[in-house]
């Protein structure tokens, strides 16, 4: 890809080498995707195991409180996830280890300091947050706040790994962290620490990601001269837009849990948290695809045909994997719920199929949002902020039980999928027409 295409994301370029180069790029994408997806499927199984062990060990009421704490941790990590996407984009665009070395050395101290400041700020507000979620004691909020320091530093290391397309190493890092989290949960629940132990296990996962990745990258970059990213890269978009995508993901993924905790009471919130896990099974199974496709979309964003192929493969894999899970949820909802959570959660059985559909639509939308992010479309902010407000308003208006909340989530994600799908398709068609016109003028 030419330097102009790297520096101007809207540049229209016909890649040299034509079909052969596209075939090599797609082959690399498929191999990377298969490797990372395999690792992250195991991570998803560990995450599912964490949820099931916690639900069975704590019961509906206490599990609802834990789910609210975990949702808060995820929302606190908005900055970390945005940082990961930013670093991924800068490293992928420059395609240079020297840029990764420069970011690792410069950003670690800065992000650690920012994490400490954010931790102190959230800790100071622990009392009001705990009261709003009916948690009873702010200690769990303090534990959640402690995740901010390792999360921000870990966001840098994860972004470098994915920007260099080192997906095997990235998968191993995430797998190690989730195995440690699950093992620590079992140990702390056995020790009788309850919600506090489960919260500590959640924070351990975030910390392990940095503990494993940083030394490995330090060895990788040994002897590599650090160099900043090329001056022509549009840093404003790279630094600002990932925040919008992250806001979208974390709001869409966690808002319903917090609303249920506020309105439904301990028992109802616990049942809804278990229902949410059934939908997140689909997210666990397909969530590895967007991080894989994103650096490829950044590198080849000037080629609408190749970008379309990346998206088509990612959407097809998401639909197949998610559709299989939904088929099981629809065919045998009662047995699935009893096997996963036990008979105390039988009340969620009528809704698991619909909630699974909601999160299949979410997963498809999340893939499309990564394309809009890669081409630096500021519409991502519209979907993040406007969509978040719409979802919040609908959940607050229709919070009268599991069925209503499930209906809101399904309808909302269907709308988001249609809107992002239409915009992505029209954008790809427009870029292809521009490519044809550019090539025609160049050969005239």
Describe the structure.
The chain is mostly helical and 444 residues long. It has one domain (3-443). Helices cover 84% and strands 0% of the residues. It has 17 helices and no strands. The chain has helices at residues 3-7, 18-76, 78-94, 97-124, 126-132, 139-145, 148-163, 167-190, 194-220, 235-263, 265-286, 289-299, 304-331, 333-341, 352-374, 379-397, 402-443. The longest helix has 59 residues, at 18-76. The chain starts with a helix and ends with a helix. Residues 1-17 and 232-239 have low confidence and may be disordered.
- Binned, the helix content reads over 70%
Order of helices and strands: HHHHHHHHHHHHHHHHH
| Estimated share of beta-strand residues | under 5%
Shape field: globular
Structural class: mainly alpha
Main beta-sheet annotation:
none
- Helical region count? 17
Straight-line N-to-C gap: 23 Å
| Unreliable runs | 1-17, 232-239
User: How many β-strand runs?
Assistant: 0
Draw up the topology in text:
Blueprint lengths: L2 H5 L10 H59 L1 H17 L2 H28 L1 H7 L6 H7 L2 H16 L3 H24 L3 H27 L14 H29 L1 H22 L2 H11 L4 H28 L1 H9 L10 H23 L4 H19 L4 H42 L1
Helix pairs in contact: 2-6, 2-8, 2-9, 2-10, 2-11, 2-12, 3-4, 3-7, 3-10, 3-12, 4-7, 5-6, 6-9, 7-9, 8-9, 10-11, 10-15, 10-16, 11-13, 11-15, 12-13, 12-15, 13-15, 13-17, 15-17, 16-17
Sum up the structure in keywords.
single chain; mainly alpha; globular; disordered N terminus
Give a brief outline of the structure:
This protein is mainly α and 444 residues long. The protein has 17 helices and no strands. 84% of the residues lie in helices and 0% in strands.
């Amino acid at each position: 890809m030419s330097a102009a295409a790297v520096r101007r994301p809207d540049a229209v370029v016909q890649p040299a080498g034509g079909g052969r180069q596209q075939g090599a790029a797609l082959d690399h994408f498929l191999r990377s995707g298969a490797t990372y997806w395999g690792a992250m499927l195991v991570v998803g199984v560990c995450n599912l195991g964490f949820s099931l062990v916690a639900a069975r060990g704590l019961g509906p009421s206490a599990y609802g409180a834990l789910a609210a704490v975990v949702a808060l941790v995820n929302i606190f990590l908005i900055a970390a996830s945005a940082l990961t996407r930013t670093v991924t984009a800068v490293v992928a665009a420059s395609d240079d280890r020297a840029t990764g070395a420069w970011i690792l050395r410069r950003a670690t101290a800065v992000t650690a300091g920012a994490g400490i400041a954010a931790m102190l700020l959230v800790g100071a507000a622990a009392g009001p947050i705990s009261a709003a979620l009916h948690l009873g004691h702010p200690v769990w909020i303090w534990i959640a706040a402690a995740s901010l320091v390792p999360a921000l530093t870990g966001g840098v290391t994860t972004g470098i790994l994915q920007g260099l397309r080192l997906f095997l190493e990235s998968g191993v890092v995430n797998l190690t962290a989730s195995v440690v989290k699950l093992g620590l949960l079992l140990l702390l629940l056995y020790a009788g620490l309850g919600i506090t132990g489960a919260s500590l296990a959640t924070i351990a996962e975030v910390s392990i990601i940095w503990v494993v990745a940083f030394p490995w990258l330090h060895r990788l970059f040994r002897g590599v001269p650090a160099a900043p990213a090329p001056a022509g890269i549009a840093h404003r978009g790279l630094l600002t837009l990932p925040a919008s995508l992250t806001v979208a993901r974390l709001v869409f993924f966690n808002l319903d849990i917090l609303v249920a905790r506020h309105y439904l009471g301990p028992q109802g919130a616990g049942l809804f948290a278990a229902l949410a896990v059934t939908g997140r099974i689909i997210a666990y199974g397909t969530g590895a695809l967007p991080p894989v496709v994103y650096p490829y979309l950044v590198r080849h964003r000037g080629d609408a045909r190749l970008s379309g192929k990346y998206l088509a493969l990612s959407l097809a894999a998401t639909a197949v994997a998610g559709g299989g899970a939904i088929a099981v949820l629809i065919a045998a909802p009662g047995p699935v719920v009893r096997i996963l959570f036990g008979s105390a959660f039988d009340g969620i059985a009528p809704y698991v199929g619909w909630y699974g559909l909601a999160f299949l639509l979410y997963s498809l939308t999340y893939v499309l949002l990564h394309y809009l992010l890669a081409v630096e479309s500021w519409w991502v902010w519209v979907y993040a902020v406007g969509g978040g407000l719409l979802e919040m308003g609908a959940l607050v208006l229709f919070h009268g039980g599991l069925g209503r909340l499930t209906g809101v989530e399904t309808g909302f994600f269907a709308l988001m999928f249609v809107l992002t799908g239409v915009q992505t398709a029209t954008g790809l068609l427009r870029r292809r027409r521009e490519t044809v016109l550019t090539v025609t003028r160049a050969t005239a």
